[in-house]
Amino acid sequence: MPKKIRLGIIGGGGDSLIGVLHRVASFINDNYEIVGAVFNPDYEQNIAFAKEIDVPTNRIYKDFDTLIEEELKLPEEDRIQVCSVLTPNFLHFPMAKKLLDNGFHVICEKPMTMDYKEAKILQEVHKNSGKVFALTHTYTGYPMVRQMREMIKNGELGKIHKVDARYYQGWINTVIHDKEKRSSVWRLDPTKAGISSCMGDIGVHAFNMVEFTTGLQVKSLLCDFNYLYEDNQMDVDGTVLIRMGEHVKGVIRGSQVATGEENGLAIAIYGEKGALRWEQEKPNFLYKMSDTEPVQIYKPGHAYNSELSLGASKMPPGHPEGIFDSMANIYLGAAKAIRGEKYNDGEFPTMEDGVRGMNFIEGTVASHKQGNVWVEMD
């Protein structure tokens, strides 16, 4: 198989942050080449953007359905192998489903679908397709998050007691207090964003980090949301109590109105022998704590780290890597899977993570609406 995997991009045109993040990430390890796309629903803007980033325009299509139709006419050795779905949330499910049904691998932004029912349908479609599905929970790509996962797996913390994850942002402050603005932003429109804003967009990342690092699953939860205004249908702040076992409990906190916060994702795991703490805005530092020894600081690229962590480090110690590199590590893991190569199951989030995420989001909404009660997860 040729070195470069033929990549198609759906969405992410113009000044889209997620668009540039995915494009740069796909280039970093020299595994992908963008050969076709629908960057924008306006065809003229679509072509103009392709020219702007120097992507050949002969396979820039007018819409998603045309992309699939025309690509399937090409010889298998020429057509797109994998598509990245970077559109607003309501398009993730129908696009991912049609791609899998037509034999394409998929790299998809989260949340994977609009609801849990769609997630279960997509899970069945994926199982029958035999194709690779990667969900871009970006933060699982950081070397020190992967180191955290491996240390917990190896029993360095002993029995887990307590988990604490938070994701604080402040960006919705600029729109939520203006009635006209909060009525026009797609993130606050349930027909486009789904049933949740805060938990659906960022809280689910904190949830995913909890399950990714500990290897445990959330069994039940209790949630309290804040909407700030009566006419706002979407949560912009929330606190979730979680139970992962009889004696394993914790909290997931999310906010899009945490004034002054930028991208404050952080996680701490506490066990009988020690604890680990990591913060996204200081991604090169993993803190190991105990009751009997000084705090230890783990950093990327050192030989003391696990194979999974070292595989996510592209530079020698002391050279900072960030969000582009983290996303690139997910693309790297997906490339291994697409080529049928051996890979660690922590190298990219899967369909299972997408289903769990939707189960979590719906659980938080149900818990709040039922009067802040405990809700069981599947």
From TrEMBL:
Q: Where does the record place the Gfo/Idh/MocA-like oxidoreductase N-terminal domain?
A: 5-136
* Alphabetized Pfam families for the sequence: GFO_IDH_MocA, GFO_IDH_MocA_C3
Which residues are in the GFO/IDH/MocA-like oxidoreductase domain?
Answer: 145-277
**Listed GO molecular functions?**
nucleotide binding
Q: InterPro entries attached here?
A: Gfo/Idh/MocA-like_OxRdtase_N (IPR000683), Gfo/Idh/MocA_oxidoreduct (IPR051317), GFO_IDH_MocA-like_dom (IPR055170), NAD(P)-bd_dom_sf (IPR036291)
Tell me the protein's name. Gfo/Idh/MocA family oxidoreductase
